[in-house]
Amino acid sequence: MDITLQLPELPYQKDSMAPIITEETFDYHYGKHHATYVNNLKNLTKDDPLSETTVEQILLESHHNNNTLLFNNAAQHWNHSFFWHCLSPNGGGLPQNDIKQLIDRDFGDFDTFRNQFSTTALKLFGAGWTWLAQNEAGKLEIIPLKDASTPLTENKTPILTLDVWEHAYYIDYRNERNKFIDGFWEVVNWDFANKNLLCNI
């Protein structure tokens, strides 16, 4: 995904995911948290040649240079922009096509994969993201990453992600992260996952 230094439009209406994710949560999560990362990133790259590049390039370069402040804001902007597309009001159900075949190949079956992903997301301590990513060999991996970290810095291809920072679910579920994770499977966007798979697999 080529993501710019702008807050992207959501690919659906803010009320279309209720009650799994309510409009109020989108108002805060997208309208305030994500917007803050975008504004911070604009300020951090003002009058810098990096402002003419993609957010992916900014996060990779800032990670390489150990610029934590720049990386955190660039990565959180990229992660959130990606995450919104991992959800769909027409999503959920069982995976289809290539993503189904790869899940069956690498995890045995969908139920095993779902249980492993959900458990990983539930047990991730503190703030972070749970990713389904594809390594260079084409194998799918479930990767829990802290704070703003992303598989991009590990040379892996993001396929899906679930945001498990508290601001992603606290309005709707308070401290019950498990209920938010359960709801994710009712709106997960398998079409988007299929589009992200490595083309040579």
From TrEMBL:
Domain named Manganese/iron superoxide dismutase C-terminal: residues: 95-196
GO function term, MF aspect, one: superoxide dismutase activity
Catalytic reaction list: 2 superoxide + 2 H(+) = H2O2 + O2
Keywords: Metal-binding, Oxidoreductase
Positions with a binding annotation for Mn(2+): H29, H80, D163, H167
TM regions (residue ranges): none
Domain Manganese/iron superoxide dismutase N-terminal: 6-88
Identification of the protein by name: Superoxide dismutase
Organism whose genome encodes this protein: Pedobacter caeni
